[in-house]
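Thread title: Can someone regenerate the structure for this chain?

I was given the following input by a collaborator and told the matching structure tokens would be attached. They weren't. Posting the sequence so someone can regenerate them.
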Amino acid sequence: MPYDGFLVSEHTENKTGAEHKIIVKILAIPKGEIDRNACQFRLYEEMEKLGCQVDDFRLVEPFQEKYEIIHIHWPELFTDGKTIFHALKKSLKILYLLGRLKNKGSRVVWTCHDVISHKQRFPRLEKYFMRMFIHKTDGIIAPLKSAYTYAVSYFPQLLKKSHVVIPTGHYIGIYPNETDQPEARERLKLPAGTRIIGFIGNISEYKGIYELLDAFSKIEDQNTLLLLAGIPNNKQIQQDVEKVADKNQRIKVRWGLIPNNELQLYLNTADVIVLPFRKINNSGSLYLALSFNKHTLVPDFPQMLEVKKKYAPEHVHTYPKGKLSSTDLTKLLENVKNDVQPDLAKMDYEVLAGETIDFFNSLVK
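Best answer:
Regenerated them for you:
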């Protein structure tokens, strides 16, 4: 049936009882995979169940189709490259793509996971590109109210764009979670009876690895360990971490990409998770920890305080940003309880799919 010039399916009712007109064709940049960008993958999976067609821009010829919505995540990554010429080529190519598709009637929606890139390899190019990109957008999805406020502080022109707040999805059911702590520690050859602080995922400066090493080094309790597991962002970080770990046998380092079925070992081994971000707009690492029922320490950025208030008041712990101390770490360990899983129902993908479709439809009316 026609819907203001765009083809949509019949109304579909979601599990909350609400009805959604379904946009048929969406071009996702990127669509995601279960092994990479799993949240995007699950969101689109649920949207497809409701009747959407979601294509991955890497796998189709976009100019041969007419898409109602171009849904883009992490546009700032198009300004990353080995050289500025490579980055410039990538950024101009995506701007050209968006321009041509808009001329065919498509609407461009940006889900604002990050406001600026973590690497900031070519900051002047990125700033110029983002201004041009935002000019082409029709709508903004922010994962948190505070994330939208933060984005507007960087790019005031966003105030002229339609926007909505839709949470990022959780990781419950995406990764296996069947191994308890004793078994996990046995398999990782880590001692039972110790208290373990976990830092799991990409090991990078913006995540505060140096601040964590410094704070942990001041903990005198020999029964407290620090587990670092994941991929170092660069060789310098790897060398620095190994240098500190060589002098402190309580720091356990496991380099490498963690397979999906082994992620549970590292999360369930840890008593607590620490994420001492230097800057943050939204955190999949935090949602992953909460999905595994972990008490997690984060700096008191507005975005983290909002997650604490809305989703996990008992599980999210904060400290003054930029001032992580050994006291913060020991207090976190003392607050560990066998709590009931935080209620992340508002982050269920069936709910998010319906909310996303409703916003898309509001843009094509």
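Residues 1-11 have pLDDT under 50 and may be disordered.
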